[in-house]
Amino acid sequence: MELVLDTSNIEAIKDLNSMLTVTGVTTNPTIVTKSGKEIEDLVKAFDEVLSEDQLLFVQAVSTDFEGIMEEARAISKFRPKNSYVKIPVTHDGLRAIKQAKKEGIGVLATAIYTANQAFLAAMNGADYLAPYVNRMDNYGDGVENVKDLIEMLRVNNMDSKVIAASFKNTRQVHELIKAGIQAVTVPEDVVYAMINHPGTQIAVDEFSANWEKAYHRTTLLK
Ligand code: G3P
Q1: Cα dist. 70→1, 7, 62, 91, 129 in Å?
Q2: pLDDT digit string (tens) for 28-70?
């Protein structure tokens, strides 16, 4: 399972990347605006905290076929290795996904609300499919729809990976990991919520206090 961070917060990426096994970082236009940076500068900032082998996903902002393709080609020039262009599954987006794959550009099909949209993007060769789990909950059951998608891809031997996105709580992530999802992209607040538990700190404090009382030092070794 690939864990990807859905954020432009460089400090959070640095912190979580040192602590966890992180496959890469996803952004979308809204996430980029939160950095206050132009995309070229943001990509440089990501490259300072990510290794070359880690993946970077940048979304096209243009909505017409030609504009999406121009941005897709530019994104693969900003970071030639291990970068993917995110393309929403609109009519022009689906055309652009087909074309980008013909040109050998890595593609993540995004803004997916149904398993059918995702499946059709997979048929166009998209490397990753990003269903918006929490937003899908406004129309039905996001987690169940993504489970359907995983099954549709499995029985049809499709290569695209599902990278579920738009998580708002740890339960959504947990249910999809349990269903065998290939990848999740998770904002830092939800990742920290997956890591942190007050009981862990209480246990550590208790061990430290008992140790110090008995040996009058805070380390194992003399
Ligand atoms: O990166 C795309 C996706 O995660 C969107 O999330 O929070 O805007 O629904 P959100």
Answers
A1: 31, 24, 9, 17, 21
A2: 999 999 999 999 999 999 999 999 999 999 999 999 999 999 9
pLDDT band at residue 191 under the 50/70/90 scheme = very high
User: What are the contacts of 60-63 at 24+ separation with CB within 8 A?
Assistant: 60/85, 60/86, 60/87, 60/88, 60/96, 61/29, 63/88, 63/90, 63/92, 63/93
**Which of 25, 30, 184 to mutate to test ligand 1, by most ligand atoms within 8 A of the CB atom?**
30
> What b/e sequence results for 80-108 when a residue is b if at least 16 CB atoms lie within 10 Å of its CB, and e otherwise?
eebbbbbbbbeebbbbbbebbeeeebbbb
Side chain identity at residue 68, one-letter code: I
From CA 33, how far away is CA 89, in angstroms rounded? 21
Helix axes 91-102, 115-123, angle to 10 degrees: 30
Which pTM was predicted?
0.96
Give yes or no for a contact between 55 and 4, defined as CB atoms under 8 angstroms apart.
yes
User: What whole-number distance in Å separates Cα of residue 42 and Cα of residue 58?
Assistant: 10
Q: Which helix (H) or strand (E) holds 83?
A: strand 83-88
Q: By alpha-carbon position, which residue is closest to atom 4 of ligand 1? A: 166
Residue 86 is a catalytic residue = yes
In the numeric block, which tokens belong to residue 8?
Answer: 């432009």
Both tokens of residue 211? 């140790």
In which residue are the tokens 């194992």 written?
220
* Atom 3 in ligand 1: residue holding the nearest Cα: 166
